[in-house]
Amino acid sequence: MEKFSQYRDRGSGIAPFFPISTAGSRIYLPFYIFLFLVRLPILITVTLSYFTLLQWFPIGSLGKKASLWLILGVPGIWWIDLRIDGVKKGSLAKHHKARLPQPSSIIASSFTSPIDSLYLAAIFDPVFAASYPSTRLVHRISLFEAILRAFQHPQKHPPLNACLTDLQTLLQQHPSQPVVVFPECTTTNGRGILPFSASLLTVPSKTKIFPISLRYTPADITTPVPDMYLAFFWNLLSRPTHCIRVRIAESVYNTSYSSSMGSSKQTSLLDMIRNQGTLLGLEENNDVSLDEKIVLDNVAEALARLGRVKRVGLSAMDKEAFVKAWTRQRRR
Prior knowledge:
This protein is an alpha/beta fold. The protein has 11 helices and 9 strands.
């Protein structure tokens, strides 16, 4: 592992891109194989039924959530440890509107596993938006695309055919749903928080931003390295149960945003969307101001505190370099 030391954070020594493996007793291996073989066809059937049929039927939000919970239940994900900042156990109903994400709010979530998107969809029925390190703009993606992004390589730039917009416009287009953003832009193993995309800076000043941390026990169902399909499904389906530790912070506001700046930016962004090359060029040279940095720091610090981890200086592009080195090492 010495040759991978450059992919550890210099200040803390944290390695956010290394896969996590949980050693299991060989005595239980036949039982693990049995669980995997029984659950795999059930999971495939339930998942295909939802994404090819049920999601297009008028079954309503409740029907969709029930279907997604069924998908989560097949691999044994039914233990949810939920805690909310400022809310005592047993008193959630009294603080429901103020403490939980509601329609027209933003969810800034940690990003470690394909389960992240599935769980958030089962709870909040949100709209998903993909963020990129090179631009403040996002593009809307489906739940299935959000799940697949957990297996993909980091992307610095959005696809050329992506319909880009900002979060303010996305909120206006979907006023009855919250919007989920993964500001780290790529997955980690859950042991550190990467630098954020500037996409959160397009959120209006009166819109609530809820940092949400998701952690898993066992932690081997995280996918910090792309294309870990076989390892992920084996770890997911061969364990009897999994627990999700969910932490929701108090809402954060984009204090750097002003209405006058927002209206002028919206006009310029629409112009830039028509010219993809110009958009990327301007965004890469657009520095983050001190006030904007404070907003991003507030959300990142909240995620780090909720997950009991530290922020690291390694970026999504550092992960891409790590993946190349890791792949070469594995092929030898």
